[in-house]
Design goal:
This protein is 55% helix and 2% strand. It is mostly helical. The chain has 2 domains: 94 residues, Multidrug-efflux Transporter Regulator, Chain: A, Domain 2 (Orthogonal Bundle), CATH 1.10.1660; 38 residues.
Length: 174
């Protein structure tokens, strides 16, 4: 999937509201909702209040759909075929595979946590972890941890907002 110039302008966030995606993509909300019905690869999740929450890959997909329809003048059917081909081909693309774009994630705790919690009863299967020296996160790790903390705060804000919306809806119904 080619990256449009607009894709570089996507803010570093975990979730986006429909209004934010409309601003980024330059289309109205009803257009995005229509695209969701036509393009199965554009499926934002809904929070507990029923509001759409778009992930970065959803925003990138919306930008790609817009590029195909508006810039390259594809029909809806043609754009669907093109996207399906791009998605199928992305797994075989040697230079830009999906695995190369996403960092590998280990299920093992980082050394700093393994050492700190190595003496717990749950770690009896790995006695070596209790002798692992405590490591402090390096610059890159620290930046990633800060970014993760920021994204977790955003998730909590979305959850709080959803709960507030539900409470408001329930209060109106009474």
């Amino acid at each position: 999937m080619s990256m449009s110039p607009s894709a570089a302008a996507i803010p570093e966030k975990l979730f986006f509201k429909i209004g934010e995606v409309c601003d980024i993509a330059g289309v109205q909300a009803h257009v995005l909702r229509y695209w969701e019905t036509e393009f199965p690869m554009l499926q934002p999740q809904k929070n507990r209040a029923g509001q759409r929450t778009y992930r970065r890959r959803d925003v990138e997909m919306a930008l790609r759909i817009k590029e195909l329809l508006y810039d390259e003048q594809y029909t809806i059917a043609g754009a669907k075929k093109k996207l399906a081909g791009e998605i199928r081909g992305s797994g075989r693309d040697s230079g830009q595979s999906v695995a190369a774009k996403t960092p590998a994630r280990s299920l093992q705790p980082p050394p700093s946590l393994a050492a700190r919690f190595g003496a717990s009863p749950n770690s009896a299967s790995s006695p070596a972890s209790s002798t692992t020296p405590v490591a402090t996160p390096g610059g890159d790790q620290r930046r990633h941890l800060i970014q993760i903390a920021k994204q977790l705060r955003e998730i909590l804000e979305l959850l709080d907002q959803g709960e507030a919306d539900i409470a408001l809806t329930q209060a109106k119904q009474k």
